[in-house]
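SEVERITY: medium
COMPONENT: batch folding queue
REPORTER: lab tech (J.R.)

DESCRIPTION
The queue accepted two submissions in a row. Attaching both inputs and their returned structure tokens so the on-call engineer can compare them side by side.

ATTACHMENT 1
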Amino acid sequence: MRTRNARLAALRSFLKYAAHYDLTALIVIQQALAIPMKRFDRPVLGFLSREEMQAILDAPDARTWAGERDRTLFSLMYNTGARVSEAIGLRVGEVIVDGAAVAHLHGKGRKDRSVPLWRTTVSLIRNWKRRLAFTSEEDFLFPNRSGGRMARSNVTQRFELAVSAAAERYPQLASRSISPHTIRHTTAMHLLQSGLDISVIALWLGHESSATTHMYLQADLAMKERILNRLQPMTSSQGRYRPPDQLMQFLMSL
């Protein structure tokens, strides 16, 4: 349905343009513009619990070059909520670990944002930079074996290995559809559950509009359940008070 709607949107744009140049086709154009968009069900966003996310971060073997790179990469993605393209495009000089630690990300539509780094992330990046000896600030922070930019498919492959290893502790991971983009959803949900304002999360993730971030409110069933437990329906009766037997015996003895 999404593909159909995308094609229909492109067709509508063209027809609106054509209407200014061919008045004889206005009737046909109006009929085409009257075709409605197809409705479709939006899938529920998948995200990981804190324990599941930590198990995936701990899965790569930090004793190896690739393992330490993967652990640092996934940790930075979880910290910043970065898209895969933003993370693999980072240069060494764009991640500051001295003083106010921050990562300068380049998002969609040439929109840049700076995200603060946690102490654990800073520690991982410092250790990883020591393995990247003799590199300049213009080199990629997370290169492939030849020193070039990692491919998206390479990140997906390495992430699947980490998920498979983490599934030994949490078997439910093996039956779920988990991709590197799930880390971004997980970051948003954990920030939301921590009480961070939705507008701040939108800035953290680099959303152009906070309306995009509202989908995480719809996905957090646990938060909805907690709110529901605090409320009682307006029509519900409080029930008649029934004193315990000991209280009744005391009152009868007076």
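ATTACHMENT 2
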Amino acid sequence: MSAANPVDPAPLGPGLLVLVVGPSGAGKDTLIAYARGHLKGREDIRFARRRITRPADATENHIALDEDAFAREMALGSFPLHWRANGLGYALGAEVAEDVAAGRIVVANGSRAAVPAARARFARVKVVHVTAPLDVLAERIAARGRESGEAVRARLAREPALDAPPDLTIVNDGPAEVAGEKLAAYLRGL
């Protein structure tokens, strides 16, 4: 599931990690992209690019790693936070630790299952839960073209619970600009 970096257990701070979590298809990447575009010029806010053991594609801006490279980086302690979900490895890179150590706010697409490890690894964590009705989630997942039918249903059946109520919940079932502005406004207020 999730794990903090075992090499350096000291909590990272004084900055803030904002984990944007929620089910597949909720629109986390879309809302993060909206906020990034509307918070240009804010040097105190950074947006993380995850490392994922999946080839890069047009649906997500991530750094692709194969399983061997992911395991190597994990063993070296390069990831301040990493987890497994949906058969893939996910991680935040060393630049996240550097930005948080410099006192910045770092916004990252995360996993609900990784929240406890994030709270153990970072001195300050805020959780934004993005969600949508089940039919909207299924339609969005199918539209990506990575999965269909039973795979979509299986993905939606995996719903890890949060360890505590989120700091903000956004129901993303309308225009992306509306939900995106909720995230951007929240980040402006931090």
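NOTES FROM REPORTER
Residues 2-188 form a domain with the Rossmann fold fold (CATH 3.40.50.300).
No errors were logged for either attachment.
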